[in-house]
Design brief:
Jelly Rolls; binds 2,5-dihydroxybenzoic acid; binds fe (ii) ion
Length: about 280
């Protein structure tokens, strides 16, 4: 098998610069979300990052509100740079602080806001291309614009704090292909598999390919990955896209924390999943 999508890399430093420019030019009053979609650079593709997944960088300015809506696709955020930002998911206000992972399962109301003083930035991952393929693309705007906060939650099954992620990683099992890995449980998002990996400086994996489309987000560190024939040097905040069945080789130049989202669960459910060392 061979994906039509190509391996790809997006640099956070460039996206951040673009989001700062966008922050000056367009407000959340005019844009439903201020986001930059990472379109796979193949002809005829206008939004998908990989066959089933979409990735975007999003930002919000202090005092802004991104209106509440809900949609069929499942979504999650990896917070890159934020202090005082929050997401209200079904009435619960969740902090979005650097290193947090925040879930928005399909059809949950969600809106974002910012009580801090500096522009906030995060990564969005969704299964939008899958929803488009299957065609249950339901979408609704909240009748009140920004839905009221019913509860402020520090701990919730929708939020995974960076400090907890790091302490779980220290005790996590190791794997020659994936490195030390924890699962981020998202039982109401059955199309997506979410993981965080910890790679020590100098670590290399045993290269493999598997029947899952995978997007990586660099939460900490620096290194080089070769996906298919393409080598990418990455650093904090960067995004990598590995189409299903492409050969994946990682090298961590520094101690690294890497987030991954994939359609592995979906592939396993369909009994399509396989993995081989290559
Ligand atoms: O934050 O609700 O990047 O609905 C794409 C669609 C973000 C969001 C995206 C969305 C959102
Ligand atoms: Fe959304």
């Amino acid at each position: 098998m061979h994906s039509e999508f190509v391996p790809a890399h997006w640099r956070y430093a460039e996206a951040k610069w673009a989001m700062q420019a966008a922050g000056r030019l367009i407000g959340t009053d005019r844009a439903e979300r201020r986001n930059f979609v990472m379109r796979n650079p193949i002809s005829g593709n206008d939004y998908a990052t990989l066959r089933t997944l979409i990735a975007a960088y999003q930002s919000i300015l202090p005092g802004e509100k991104a209106r509440t809506h809900r949609h069929a696709p499942h979504a999650l955020r990896v917070i890159l740079d934020a202090k005082g930002a929050y997401s209200v998911v079904d009435g619960d206000k969740h902090p979005m602080e650097t290193g947090d992972i925040v879930l928005t399962p399909g059809w949950c109301w969600h809106g974002h806001g910012h009580d801090g003083t500096e522009q906030a930035y995060w990564f969005d991952g969704l299964d939008v291309p899958l929803t488009r393929l299957l065609e249950p693309m339901f979408f609704e705007e909240h009748p009140e614009g920004f839905a009221p906060v019913k509860r402020v939650t520090e701990t919730s099954p929708m939020r995974f704090r960076f400090s907890d992620t790091l302490s779980k990683l220290a005790l996590a099992p190791d794997s020659v292909h994936f490195g030390r890995t924890i699962d981020i449980p998202a039982p109401t998002m059955p199309t997506l598999t979410l993981k965080v990996h910890a790679w020590p400086a100098g670590w290399r994996n045993v290269p493999y390919r598997h029947a899952a489309n995978t997007i990586y987000v660099v939460m900490r560190g620096r290194g080089r990955s070769t996906i298919g024939e393409s080598a990418f040097d990455w650093e904090f905040g960067d995004t990598l896209a590995a189409p299903a069945w492409s050969r994946i080789e990682h090298h961590a130049a520094e101690e690294t924390v890497m987030f991954s989202m994939s359609d592995e669960q979906l592939m396993r459910w369909a009994r399509y999943y396989r993995l081989e060392a290559v």
